TrEMBL record:
This is Gfo/Idh/MocA-like oxidoreductase N-terminal domain-containing protein. GO terms for biological process: NADPH regeneration. GO terms for molecular function: nucleotide binding; oxidoreductase activity. Coiled coil: none annotated. It comes from the Eukaryota. One of its GO terms (cellular component) is cytoplasm. Residues 14-108 form the Gfo/Idh/MocA-like oxidoreductase N-terminal domain. Gene3D superfamilies: Dihydrodipicolinate Reductase, domain 2, NAD(P)-binding Rossmann-like Domain.
C-alpha cells in the first residue's frame, strides 16, 4: 500500500497486517515506515519491485496501473476511488479481474456509513413512483490520463478542471447516488462555473429527477449531503469532514403521522468512522468471499458538450 493509507489499516490490526509500503516519495516512505514500524527493507518505490520481492502479500491497495499488475501477480486489490480516470482503464481492470478471479474492492467509504445504509433502507422501501426529487450537495502521467479520458477535450482548461472535480470530490457523491437510487436514464442538463470549480447537473430517473451540485470555494466548511423527497417523507444523510476521525455521519427522517403531527428523527448509528466500516467490508470480501463510476462521469461530460 502507499504511505498515506497506513493509519486507517493500522487501526484494523485484528483484520490486517501491513507487510510492505510503496510510494514514489522517499520522504513519505521513511516517515511512514518509522512511525508504524515497517522495516526499511519492506519499503519500495514501485509496485513492480514490491511484487517481485514481497511474495507474502495477499492484498494490494493502489490505482489502475498497479491494480492490473497486482491482479496478474495473483493478489487481491483495494483500488482507491475513482477506480479509473477513463472508461478504458475501468474496462481493463474488469477484464483482468475476470481473467484472474481475484477480488477488486473499490474504496468509496461513504457507501459504508451506517447512517447512509439507514437512508438506503428507507429509499428502497419506498414504492415505485413515490420519489419526487433527490438532491446531493456537494505532469506527464496526469496528462496521459486526461488525454485517455477526454481525448481532444484535454486541451480545454475548463474541461480539464471539470473532469478533475468529477474524479475527486464528485467520485464519492456519484458513487453514493448510484448505491442509493441506482443509475440514471440520462442527463437532462449540466452546467459549470467559468473556472470549472462548480458543477450543476440534473439526472433523469424512472419517475423522478435528481439534482446534483458540487463545488469548491474558499469558505472553510465541509457541506455534503444527499436528501430524498418522497410523497410521505424526507430522508437525508449528512456527511461531516472526513479529515477528523470519529465525527458521526447522521441520518435525518421527516414524516407526517396519521393524526397530522410532523415528526423529525435524527439517527446517529455509530461514532465509528466510515473508513473503518469500509475496511470491515474489504476484509469480508477477501477473507470470506463476499461480493463486493465512470459511466456517470461520461454522461455529465457528454451533457456539457451540448
Amino acid at each position: 500500500m502507499s504511505a498515506d493509507k497506513v493509519l486507517g489499516v493500522a487501526l484494523c490490526s485484528h483484520m490486517f497486517k501491513v507487510k510492505a509500503l510503496v510510494d514514489v516519495s522517499p520522504g513519505a516512505l521513511s516517515h511512514a515506515s518509522s512511525k508504524f514500524g515497517i522495516p526499511q527493507d519492506r519499503t519500495y518505490n514501485s509496485v513492480d519491485d514490491m511484487l517481485a520481492k514481497a511474495d507474502d502479500i495477499d492484498l494490494v491497495m493502489y490505482h489502475v496501473e498497479q491494480t492490473v499488475k497486482s491482479l496478474r501477480a495473483g493478489k487481491d486489490v483495494f483500488v482507491e476511488k475513482p477506480m479509473a480516470l477513463s472508461i478504458e482503464g475501468a474496462d481493463e481492470i474488469e477484464r483482468v479481474q475476470k481473467e484472474t478471479g481475484k477480488v477488486v474492492f473499490v474504496g468509496f467509504m461513504r457507501r459504508y456509513a451506517e447512517a447512509f445504509l439507514r437512508v438506503k433502507d428507507v429509499v428502497q422501501a419506498t414504492p415505485k413512483g413515490e420519489i419526487n426529487y433527490v438532491s446531493p450537495d456537494r505532469k506527464k502521467r496526469a496528462e496521459q490520463m486526461l488525454q485517455q479520458a477526454l481525448g481532444q477535450r484535454a486541451r480545454n482548461p475548463a474541461d480539464v478542471e471539470t473532469y478533475r472535480l468529477l474524479a475527486s470530490l464528485s467520485s464519492h457523491d456519484l458513487s453514493a447516488m448510484r448505491e442509493l437510487i441506482g443509475m440514471p436514464q440520462s442527463v437532462i442538463g449540466a452546467q459549470r462555473s467559468p473556472d470549472g470549480q462548480w458543477i450543476w447537473v440534473m439526472f433523469q430517473y424512472d419517475g423522478f429527477v435528481a439534482y446534483y451540485e458540487v463545488g469548491i470555494d474558499n469558505t472553510p466548511i465541509f457541506d455534503a449531503h444527499i436528501e430524498v423527497y418522497t410523497k410521505t417523507q424526507r430522508a437525508k444523510v449528512s456527511y461531516d469532514t472526513p479529515f477528523v476521525k470519529g465525527l458521526p455521519i447522521k441520518a435525518t427522517l421527516q414524516s407526517r403521522r396519521e393524526n397530522g403531527d410532523f415528526v423529525e428523527e435524527t439517527i446517529r448509528p455509530t461514532y465509528e468512522d466510515a473508513f473503518m466500516l469500509e475496511y470491515r467490508y474489504l476484509y469480508a470480501a477477501v477473507a470470506e468471499g463476499k461480493p463486493e463510476d465512470l459511466v456517470l462521469f461520461k454522461m455529465v461530460m457528454d451533457a456539457l458538450k451540448l
